[in-house]
Amino acid sequence: MSAVDSSVVWVGGHSATWAVTTDGGAHWRSAVMPNADSLEFRDVHAVDARTAYLLSSGLGDRSRIYKTTDGGASWALEFTARDPQAFYDCFAFWDATHGVAVSDAVGGRFLVITTTDGAHWLPVSPAALPAALPNEGAFAASGTCAMALPPSDAWIGTGNGAAARVLRTGDRGATWDVTRTPLPADTSEGITSLAVRNARHIVALGGHIARLHAFQDDVAFTEDGGRTWTMGGRLPFPGPVFGAAYARSSHPWLVAVGPGGAAASNDDGRTWSLIDSAAYWSVGFGSARVGWAVGPNGRITRIELPAR
Fold first, then answer.
1. What 3-state DSSP class applies to 298?
2. CB of 63 closer than 8 Å to CB of 80
3. Rounded to whole angstroms, how far apart are CA atoms 10 and 183?
4. What is the span of the domain harbouring residue 73?
5. Distance CA 173, CA 262 (A)
6. What is the CATH number of the domain that holds 113?
7. Three-state SS annotation for 21-67
């Protein structure tokens, strides 16, 4: 899900479904993408009430990017993956027309694409990217495996291999470096979500996505933009984290969600308080206190955080 403010929120889902509210959730309008009803929209980026991007995840040509500029009345197909082994997990935007998207690694290299006009997506040169570890990739859990911070920073979280790592760019995707986090990594385990407070304070969250009932050490934080990482506090709900987001204020709350519930932190992930035990896949904020969480069976929950 992606919130523009406390009134405008866009949501993507399975079976090529999307939804939007423009009145703070009092009314929702939903539809299915024409001729694409088997796609899974794992990421959405909202620009305003009329403009939004959707990313579908899947092997090969099931990985696509769509854009609307008329509130969902029509959609333009901007990108379709040509490599049959590609699997695009998430995207992130610096502004309305500059963005980056990432796929799981193919043949030992990451596949990263960028746009500079909001319409055309071009591959980043493999020479500009670090080599991938065996089986390394991102997780299409909630659309937060990649996060961008204007004017030019972005981070990508990985796992599913020998290490849970974070790729970073400071020039809108032209060049990248990589650091290793202390989060555990293995098949189906690693970083599923990144939450960015500012250029220095970032929290990486994850876990083993198949261990739904185990309490896991799945939080790490950095105070230097991702150069070094420290383990955070254990979440009060079991299972992995699927999504996380900061509220939009200078000293905000951080909310993490997963199949086991939702929790909030006001110290960058060092300590947590349980706020819900229902399952959620994604969370986002459009203001300092108002946010939204989405989950199975069409669940959409409005979150109102207390003042700090």
1. helix
2. yes
3. 31
4. 2-304
5. 32
6. 2.130.10.10
7. ECCCCCCCEEEECCCCCCCCEEEEEECCCCCEEEEECCEHHHCEEEE
Query: Residues 6 or more apart from 179 whose CB is under 8 A from it?
Result: 165, 166, 168, 226, 227, 228, 229
Contact 90, 44 (CB under 8 A): no
What value does the CA radius of gyration of the chain take, rounded to a whole number of Å?
A: 17
Place of tokens 């069409």: 298
Q: What is the pLDDT of residues 25-57, one digit of tens each?
A: 999 999 999 989 899 999 999 999 999 999 999
- Name the domain count of the chain: 1
- The pTM assigned to this predicted structure is 0.96
What is d(CA 244, CA 144) in angstroms, rounded to the nearest whole number?
7
Q: Edge-to-edge strands of the sheet including 17-21?
A: 2-3, 9-12, 17-21, 29-32
Taking only the tens place, the pLDDT of each residue in 228-286 is 999 999 999 999 999 999 999 877 899 999 999 999 999 999 999 999 999 999 999 99
